[in-house]
Amino acid sequence: EAGVTQFPSHSVIEKGQTVTLRCDPISGHDNLYWYRRVMGKEIKFLLHFVKESKQDESGMPNNRFLAERTGGTYSTLKVQPAELEDSGVYFCASSQDLPGTSGGGGTDTQYFGPGTRLTVL
Amino acid sequence: EDKVVQSPLSLVVHEGDTVTLNCSYEVTNFRSLLWYKQEKKAPTFLFMLTSSGIEKKSGRLSSILDKKELFSILNITATQTGDSAVYLCAVNNYGQNFVFGPGTRLSVLP
Lengths: 121, 110
Hints:
- The complex is a heterodimer.
- Helices cover 0% and strands 46% of the residues of chain A.
- Chain A has strands at residues 5-7, 10-13, 19-24, 31-37, 43-50, 53-56, 65-68, 75-79, 88-95, 111-112, 116-120.
- In chain A, the strands form 2 sheets. In chain A, strands 2, 4, 5, 6, 9, 10 and 11 form a 7-stranded mixed beta sheet that branches. In chain A, strands 1-3-8-7 form a 4-stranded antiparallel beta sheet, with no helix packed on it.
- Chain A starts with a strand and ends with a strand.
- By secondary structure, chain B is an all-beta fold.
- The A-B interface holds A 3-4, 33, 35, 41-45, 48, 55-56, 58-59, 91, 98-100, 106, 108-115 and B 4, 31-32, 34, 36, 41-45, 48, 50, 88, 90, 92, 94-103.
């Protein structure tokens, strides 16, 4: 079974430019999460999709970030315009069920993608 | 604000040693605590803990949760160089949000 994939693996852009990150979750996983790790800091939650709906976007830093999941399959995260502080590794994760709802069956396990390293110069 | 603290932040041991990694948390509406191992790329799932006092084991790794004292430990016995990684602790609340700790960087020397 294919895991979570992310594209690109690394992106270097200049301040003010636009970048779009893509995440393909594991097939059949309704839940898709975006996280970000800024250098030297812990992984921070950005938002959570259930199918195509935004369940929780409380972690989105500001309105320069736009996440979409049209059709409930892959998701994109667009940063426009990018700022220096946006540099970091953006992780995507997916799970079949919501955390804590599997009754111990493991279907709520979150599987992470390899991340996209974004560098804003 | 929800918070997860891990200690130590960094640990260097020799092969064969046993290590204990700590994770304490302050989270409203706690649902579960998860441990991940991160090597070069994606964090890989190790354990999910929801109930106090029930040890989860996988080979040389084991973990237990104390919901009264709000902490969890991850034990690794007979460490190997392949155990070198960053071990992440994350706590999930009923808002479906995840809060991650800073991680413990474990280096196992031959």
